[in-house]
Amino acid sequence: MSGLEASTVSFPGTETMHSDAAPMLSTGLMASDGLMTPDGLMTSDGLMLFIGLAVAAASLVPLLAAGLRRGLPTGRCAPQPLEPVCFGTSQKVRRSPRHAILQHRGLIGTFFMALVALWLLPAVASLRALGGAVIPAALAFVLPTLLVTIHARRRSTRQ
Amino acid sequence: MTALVLSGVWLGIVSTALVACAVLERSARLVPRPDRPELLPLRAFWGGALEAPPARTLTARGLAGFARIIRSQGVVSDHRPGLQLLGRLGACVSLAVGLAIVPFVGTWGGGLADAPLLLLDLQNGLAAIGFLLLMTSFCRIAVGLSERNAWSRLGSARQASRSLAAIGLLTLVLAPLAIGSGSLRLHEIVLGQQLSIAPVAWLLETLGGEFFEILRAWPLPAWNLFTQPLTAILFIPAMGLLLGGSQIADPTSGATLAAGLGIDADPIDAYWSKLEARLSLVLASALFVALFLGAGSIPFFDPARLVLRLSPFVGETLPTLLVAGLHIGSFLAKCLLVLAITARMKRMAALARLDQSIRFATRRLIPLAWANLLLVAASTLWFAEFFGSAG
Fold first, then answer.
1. pTM: predicted TM-score of the whole model, two decimal places
2. Which of A61, B252, B289, B372 has a CA positioned 20 to 30 A from the CA of residue A37?
3. Which of B1, B92, B157 is opposite residue A30, by nearest beta carbon?
4. DSSP code for B41
């Protein structure tokens, strides 16, 4: 017993959505065996089994190829060293450009910080306090303000 | 048993869709259309020969690709194969998990109140789809960073900026669906599309005459394609920008070509790249069917009534299985239709460079998506206030 059987992949509120799952289970055709809970949710074992099946199905062709390659004579399946692709011969062209790495790091870092600061934290806090029903009302209040602001900014840029 | 059966059904549907993608790619490459010159196969820039390799049968192409994979591998000194494999596997797994959230099978019994048959039934499924697509983008960036040359890293930076624009657009496109259905759960979004609507019924009620009688007798299925057409139109470029292959301008020929990260040395990596591209296409089409075409539901057909009528004669299990099969077949047919239409649109539309696509998305599509969001939120409030429902 690994302890995973008891835990389910569920989000708050999901448990109450499946109280009508009795017809599916009463037929006896699809009895639960630890991969699904009686409420019809997949357990962690079921999720791991599904991901394992998907990875196995996708890896079938490379694994079969690797098995066949092992059956070949040794000389034919030896890996061949190749030169890396580079456009030009100078040292400056060959070495990795620092600015691309910095640009990438900056983009990813900015995205995560902006995501957390602007969206996730205020959204989670306010939704927990007010509930999901306030979303349309909040949009109806915020979007006209935003549209007017964007329009005003464009006007001022032209001047 | 349930999880294994559903996994088997999932594998069958996804495999069929992947084979359909390969068949459609072949048809786009080889089938001549003299009457429609815009649908002719792509030709090389110099010489006018077909751009694709000349193998005409799908089996021969598959065998040749498999033989290339068996052949000895090349080892490039500045590649990190571990990170590359991790990136490819991570992208494929996140796309597969995204496909597991999509409700392929419907409900057990066909009724609206029956139990859903889903591999992963998440309460915040729509948000989970967004995060899985973001993870796919990060895995693609990791594949670019696994090579030490300048061009791959520039490609990674481009992929990052493209993901930022596409995720922003996709969030704005998916938000009206959550507002319209009042839930982020995919099963509930699909359930909201099962009934039929009479468009502008309040106007037709006030008008008399034979013509309006006919219009009243022809309702539409309540698919989001009809209730939120602008959302459906904006969903296509958002998914194309997020999951499509990147295009670069070739300075020597002046043409626009497909650019892949890390597929120049290794046939196995080309296999993973192709699998990921096709899985992306299948996920995009399955999401379109589930979010806008009512998943596997057949318009104006109530499967629960079929189960009720047949159950006195053959029991409940057989009609229920028949209904589930009908749902799966309908979903697959819609998915293949979307794939075929997408393939045709790709052949007819002009290829845009990456910077052009990003500029178009940020300058044109994102404001349009904001306006659509405002429209849907306002109409939801309007209907809730004056008619007592969100429809």
1. 0.75
2. B289
3. B1
4. P
